[in-house]
Amino acid sequence: MIKKFDYKKFIGKKFGKWKILNYKGFVKSSNPKFKSHRIYYFKCICNCGNIRLVPLNNLTSGRSKGCQSCAAKKHGLAGTYLYGIWSNLMRKNKERNIQVSKQWFVIKKFINDVNKHLGPRPSKKHKFVLKDYSKGFIINNVKWGFGSKKFV
C-alpha cells in the first residue's frame, strides 16, 4: 500500500527562486524500472513572477532553481543559437526523458564542450545532429550536419 503523500508541508516553502503556491497532482512514472513511483507537481512562482508547474523532485534536488527566463538573464546567453539548442535539449529531456550528458545541464559546460569539440556552427543551415540515437546526447555522439537525424 502506498503511503498518503503529505503535500501540505511543502506549501509556502522556497527552493532557490521558486516558492510553492499549491499542490496540483501527480503522475505515475513512465520509467518501467520505477512503476510504483509518483511524480508530484506543484504550482510555483519564481522571484521574477513567472508561474510554472514544477516536479517536487526537481525542487528538492536543486535541479530546478528558477524559471528559464531567470536562467537566461543570469548567463546573458539568451538569443544565441547555442542557448536555443541547449534550451530545446533541456525541454526535450524533460518531455521525453532522452539521455543527456549530466554536465550539459549547466549551460556554460555545454557551450564549452560544443565550442571545444565541434567548433562554431558552419552555417545557419547546419543543425545539431545525433550520430547514433541509442547513445543519447554526449559530446562524442553529436555533430553539425544536415542529416535526417537532426535535433535542432
* Percent in strands: 15-25%
What integer is the average pLDDT?
83
Number of strands: 6
Order of helices and strands: EEEEHHHHEE
**How many helix segments?**
4
Which percent range fits the helix content? Answer: 25-40%
List its salient traits.
152 residues, alpha+beta, four-stranded antiparallel sheet, two-stranded antiparallel sheet, 4 helices, globular
Write the layout of secondary structure elements.
Layout: E1 14-15, E2 18-28, E3 38-46, E4 51-55, H1 56-61, H2 68-75, H3 81-96, H4 107-117, E5 127-130, E6 142-145
Antiparallel strand pairs: 1-2, 2-3, 3-4, 5-6
Description:
With 152 residues, the chain is α+β, with helices and mostly antiparallel strands. It has 2 domains: 1-69, no CATH class; 76-152, no CATH class. The protein has helices at residues 56-61, 68-75, 81-96, 107-117, and strands at residues 14-15, 18-28, 38-46, 51-55, 127-130, 142-145. The protein has a 4-stranded antiparallel sheet with strand order 1-2-3-4. The chain has a two-stranded antiparallel sheet with strand order 5-6. It is globular and about 50 Å long. The mean pLDDT is 83.
